[in-house]
């Protein structure tokens, strides 16, 4: 299913001219070697382009369409055609093993002479003359090399240029390369698992690049490298037969997606890529806004969600989007030289957006007046499960992908999201901020199916659930202590919140005893406050008969939510006053 979707996406991109044709690929190129007709090196020209990253403008390699690259494993020497680093194309490197560098250049020379041996054009002849005459052992004597030596040892890719024309763009050379590929094709045919057609089967698959944590040279989505994985004498990727066209299409499409930084994002240990079947970028931009809520795009999100509620057409930047368009989300994680698929989700674009809108609705909660953020992004949610003072701020492995999958599908949130949020509250002495309260509220509604349909954005005084009521009571007792002792630095919240949340029958009698002492002080100094708090405590305690011995994990979340709501109600009344 994943490969079929990527092949379809490649075909739509190819129609728009965004991806390379079979046998070719887009590769990062930093410099080009300028050759004369006789193959002499005239200069080294930069091919880098400006790129804006944040507030900085930097120079980065340009993407150039070049002949398909070979895969090098370990210390293997394998030459590419027309595009490679200086070690292979010029025999230049700071390597302490010059013999190996010379061997790399020798392999490259043999490959170019073999492919271009029957050519007659001036561009191809210039390349042939270069490889016939270039001597790596005396290259440092060339003034062009001395002047550009630091550039050449960057290990970045180089290409050739003859009289202003890039060599790989020459029609004769392109024809030679295509013929070479056909002649060197392995004559092993079978039924392709992706297309269902009988065709040549790919022995190895192109590497996927752009996954943080994977090898810089790339990682494989499909590969077999041990006898234990082989069966019926089918070696390497013949074990899972994928045709050469399908292999090229899916790897090209996936590498293209990973190269689009605006339409990918990392989440925990996973890299998330997403695309519409039609290949239109408006769907990707809309989806990206959903999971990257900022001050700038909050109005866009509200307009999209309002369109869903009103059952009208969805627009982004005046472009209409079809709610029935198939949309794909793929989460990949590094695993040594391979990639792990965290999840792959497919649904109509309208249904996915609706599920995201429902998720944000579950997260709605009263916030402090200073907060300007309307939507709590998934990365903000995950940050609330980890210690922000620690060096490693990554959430539990796999949790990020599970949370995202639950949001997209409208399913239950993973239990780890809830438990680690409660752990952070306990670890920080009962710090229930609005983000953690929103997570708890959404989890209780979706997973425990409690409080569904109730108005729980703010305080619900009609709710009689014991855990929610006890959270409210704890908040009022804390307010009484602060009212009686305005300069106090350590309150009952710091000392008793965790134990009150877990074992109320043990702690609340102690807190009520302390409350009586505080009330006596209020009676002397603030008689009106004493009357107000007596009414509040009496009203809340009238909702239950006795303190429970223990609260379950579900009830502990309700306790924290009740505490948060009561606190915000206190601040609201203070602001109104």
User: What is the strand tally?
Assistant: 16
- What is the subunit organization of this protein? single chain
Distance between the termini: 60 Å
Q: Which consecutive residue ranges, at least 5 long each, have pLDDT under 50?
A: none
Percentage of residues in strands: 5-15%
Strand order in the sheet with the most strands? 3-2-7-8
Roughly how much helix do the residues carry, as a percent range? Answer: 40-55%
Outline, from the CA principal axes?
elongated
Q: Structural class, from secondary structure content?
A: alpha+beta
Q: Helical stretch count?
A: 19
Which radius of gyration do the C-alpha atoms yield?
A: 32 Å
Largest β-sheet summary: 4 strands, mixed
Mean pLDDT rating? 88
Write the layout of secondary structure elements.
Layout (H helix, E strand, L loop, with lengths): L1 H14 L8 E6 L1 E5 L5 E6 L2 E5 L2 E5 L1 E6 L18 H4 L8 H18 L6 H12 L9 H10 L5 E5 L2 E2 L4 H13 L5 E3 L6 E3 L43 H16 L4 E4 L2 E7 L4 H11 L6 H12 L4 E3 L2 E3 L4 E10 L2 E11 H15 L14 H6 L15 H11 L5 H13 L6 H14 L18 H19 L7 H11 L1 H22 L1 H15 L11 H24 L1
Parallel strand pairs: 2-7
Antiparallel strand pairs: 1-6, 2-3, 4-5, 7-8, 9-10, 11-12, 12-15, 13-14, 15-16
Helix pairs in contact: 1-7, 10-14, 13-14, 14-19, 15-16, 15-17, 15-18, 15-19, 16-17, 17-18
């Amino acid at each position: 299913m994943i490969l079929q979707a990527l092949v379809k996406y490649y075909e739509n991109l190819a129609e728009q001219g965004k991806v390379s044709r079979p046998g070719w690929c887009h590769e990062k190129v930093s410099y080009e070697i300028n050759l004369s007709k006789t193959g002499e090196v005239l200069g080294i020209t930069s091919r880098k382009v400006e790129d804006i990253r944040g507030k900085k403008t930097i120079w980065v390699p340009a993407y150039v369409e070049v002949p398909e690259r070979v895969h090098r494993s370990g210390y293997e020497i394998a030459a590419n055609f027309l595009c490679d680093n200086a070690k292979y194309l010029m025999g230049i490197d700071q390597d302490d093993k010059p013999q190996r560098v010379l061997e790399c250049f020798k392999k490259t020379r043999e490959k170019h002479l073999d492919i271009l041996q029957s050519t007659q054009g001036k561009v191809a002849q210039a390349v042939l003359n270069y490889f016939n005459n270039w001597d790596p052992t005396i290259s440092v004597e060339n003034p062009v090399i001395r002047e550009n030596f630091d550039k050449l040892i960057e290990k970045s890719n180089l290409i050739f240029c003859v009289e202003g024309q890039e060599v790989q763009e020459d029609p004769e050379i392109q024809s030679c390369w295509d013929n070479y590929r056909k002649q060197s094709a392995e004559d092993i045919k079978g039924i392709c698992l992706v297309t269902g057609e009988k065709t040549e089967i790919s022995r190895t698959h192109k590497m996927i690049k752009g996954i943080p944590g994977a090898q810089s040279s790339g990682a494989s989505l499909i590969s077999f490298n041990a006898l234990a994985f082989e069966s019926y004498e089918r070696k390497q990727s013949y074990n899972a037969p994928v045709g050469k066209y399908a292999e090229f299409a899916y790897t090209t499409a996936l590498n293209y997606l990973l190269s689009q930084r605006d339409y990918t994002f990392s989440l925990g240990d996973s890299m998330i890529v997403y695309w519409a079947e039609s290949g239109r970028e408006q769907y990707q931009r809309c989806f990206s806004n959903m999971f990257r809520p900022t001050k700038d795009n909050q109005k866009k999100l509200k307009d999209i969600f309002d369109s869903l509620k009103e059952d009208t057409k969805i627009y982004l930047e005046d472009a209409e989007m079809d709610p029935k368009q198939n949309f794909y989300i793929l989460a990949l994680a590094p695993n040594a030289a391979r990639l792990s698929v965290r999840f792959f989700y497919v649904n109509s674009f309208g249904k996915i957006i609706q599920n995201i809108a429902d998720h944000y609705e579950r997260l709605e909660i009263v916030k402090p007046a200073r907060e300007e953020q309307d939507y709590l992004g998934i990365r903000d949610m995950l940050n609330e499960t980890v210690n922000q003072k620690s060096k490693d701020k990554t959430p539990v492995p796999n949790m990020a992908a599970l949370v995202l999958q639950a949001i997209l599908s409208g399913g239950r949130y993973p239990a780890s999201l809830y438990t680690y949020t409660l752990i952070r509250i306990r670890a920080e002495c009962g710090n229930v901020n609005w983000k953690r309260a929103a997570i708890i509220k959404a989890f209780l509604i979706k997973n425990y199916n409690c409080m569904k349909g109730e108005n729980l954005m703010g305080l619900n005084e009609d709710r009689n659930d014991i855990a929610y009521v006890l959270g409210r009571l704890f908040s009022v007792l804390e307010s009484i202590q602060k009212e009686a002792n305005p300069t106090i630095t350590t309150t009952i919240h710091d000392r008793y919140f965790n134990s009150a949340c877990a074992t109320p029958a043990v702690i609340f009698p102690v807190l009520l005893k302390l409350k009586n002492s505080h009330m006596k002080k209020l009676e002397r100094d603030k008689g009106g406050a004493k009357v107000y708090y007596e009414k509040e405590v009496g009203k809340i305690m009238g909702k239950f008969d006795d303190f429970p011995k223990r609260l379950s994990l579900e009830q502990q979340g309700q306790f924290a939510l009740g505490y948060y709501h009561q606190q915000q109600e206190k601040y609201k009344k203070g602001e109104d006053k």
